């Protein structure tokens, strides 16, 4: 591996025009493809295998034209103080609004509040339900604008009007998150390299890589049914790892220059050593992202594969475009320890020969490994304690900021009709195999009425064939509560009894039931996903480090950091600690996707730091240093760069904390705090402490396994044979 990459790095350095032209051409091609492709719609959302999805599919068959999974909107009206919605003027305004709402091309139906018993008991609040042909993510902007315009006209007439439901679903705006992340990354890179030019290379290559990835996703959106949200994860992860991978290769190049090597040879050795670590670190991230397909949620699978493709592009760019740019820069890139003149280069150091901070820290850990290990484990364990109280769910309008119309509509409906009115359950009764369908419909309604936490059960509405009916159930509690979840399970238990007695099938669906099913599906997939990702990466790291204990330590350290990060998420978003600082307006259950999402993304990133830091220690050990000294050497060369990489990652993810969308805010905070825990507590404290305690045993590998494993030579031992640069001419001729 190291030898091949060494040749590739020298080739890219020497044929820099060709290497740069390839990436510019790919970026241009992807950009043209994205510009000429039709505008990306929002991908359809389906959850195969869940009862709620089965019910939606059944409704499509038995109620053609009903658009069971179509978007819904509830336009909620409130009368001015001292008036009622039944007053003539207010009633005329509502009827005019209902007529206006029904004129849209994507509208299936609009329910008039006065004929549909949708006026509160005190007469001050009413709502009109709008049903659309397509889902909220597929709804055209013109339909959303028409909905907003109709509400605004009613406001001008003196009513308070708010809009709830999923019809106004939009891609969350994260503001200037990417710009903030790039700005912080630029500052960190300048400090790390002491050169504006060297700092610019990782930024440039990361932007090129993300550009190719996002443009390619946009170009293929129509053919592969990729929604506009698919590129979100790709851009977030691609930007972070793209900067980090280039950072490690540029840093190693400057270290090779400091040892007196010629620039072409230094570029080859940087790609052969640090590039080998980049390849395997990238593989762990790709495994984690592609592994999201285990969950069997199509949208999540597409997001994971798209992000994995962007990571693969980042790896290839780091291996080829970075050495090409280093060739263009020539002597303007200074050896490690030297700064450019603009940033104070040429000055005499105040304390020449003083060990850097990484060396001093590693020396401290090696001298006191037990104390550092205990403090690190206890600290992460304390942070993980809140995770024991983890409650999972999916956000609804009640978790929106109080400034949004969705949240205000949610509050008005809760005030006028009860909290459960915001999450009605749709019961689908399939009586095709029943001897008496009408009796089956009636029995289902009667059984549900006898359950706890039920406020309203509407009469069954059969289809034209009379073999299937829908029943709407309004719970007494809010949609995201555990009480509502218990009610869904109770109805399904009753449905099993009814099926045995009448031969009819009872299915529970609706947005609330769908959220419950998604949460359960994600919970069920977590352990298989964790086993798959950690297992594959464990095998990969055995090949990289040629050790059993080092990969095991890496996996256990990851579990510590991810549990601590989940504990921090629970403390902030569920318990409300520091919620004001994070601008969290509404606490509640943690998003059900969060654990599996954090496992996938954080594991990939954690293995980045593990590979980059420990391969340098492995390299020093292979070249003859004692285990404790190898730990110090690894930190002397790698701690500064790993610290910079972690700060950049945290900056990129922290930018998403400013989002107005609670889900995006939670993801940004969770990933940022997880990187902090893993980089600074696990990789920079626990890892060297464990390696210092294990000594030579850390690198133990059974002889039979050593013979069976391929020698990938990540530490670059094979590069010692490359003293004659003429050997690389064969690759150029090829």
Structure overview:
With 734 residues, the protein is an alpha+beta fold. 61% of the residues lie in helices and 7% in strands. It has 23 helices and eleven strands. The strands form three sheets. Strands 6, 7, 8, 9 and 10 form a five-stranded antiparallel beta sheet that branches. It has a four-stranded antiparallel beta sheet with strand order 2-3-1-4. Strands 5-11 form a two-stranded parallel ribbon. Strand 8 (461-462) and strand 9 form a beta hairpin. It is elongated and about 90 Å long. It starts with a helix and ends with a helix. Residues 346-350 and 723-734 have low confidence and may be disordered.
**Helix share of residues?**
55-70%
Taking all Cα atoms into account, the compactness measure Rg is 30 Å
Uncertain regions: pLDDT < 50 for 5+ in a row? 346-350, 723-734
Question: Between the first and last Cα atoms, what is the distance in angstroms?
Answer: 18 Å
Reported for the largest beta sheet, the result is: 5 strands, antiparallel
Strand content: 5-15%
Structure class: alpha+beta
Gross geometry: elongated
* Average of the residue pLDDT scores: 83
Alpha plus pi helix count = 23
Strand count: 11
Descriptors for this entry?
alpha+beta
How is this fold's topology laid out?
Layout lengths: L1 H13 L1 H21 L14 H12 L9 E7 L9 H14 L5 E5 L13 E8 L8 H16 L3 E6 L11 H17 L2 H24 L1 H4 L5 H29 L4 H28 L7 H32 L27 H11 L1 H16 L7 E2 L11 H13 L7 E6 L6 H13 L4 E4 L3 E2 L5 E8 L6 H21 L2 E5 L1 H35 L3 H26 L15 E2 L2 H29 L4 H28 L7 H33 L8 H6 L20 H5 L1
Parallel strand pairs: 5-11
Antiparallel strand pairs: 1-3, 1-4, 2-3, 6-9, 6-10, 7-9, 8-9
Helix pairs in contact: 1-2, 1-10, 1-11, 2-7, 2-11, 4-5, 6-7, 6-9, 6-20, 7-9, 7-11, 9-10, 9-11, 9-20, 10-11, 10-17, 10-19, 12-20, 13-18, 13-21, 15-16, 17-18, 17-19, 18-19, 18-21, 19-20, 19-21, 20-21
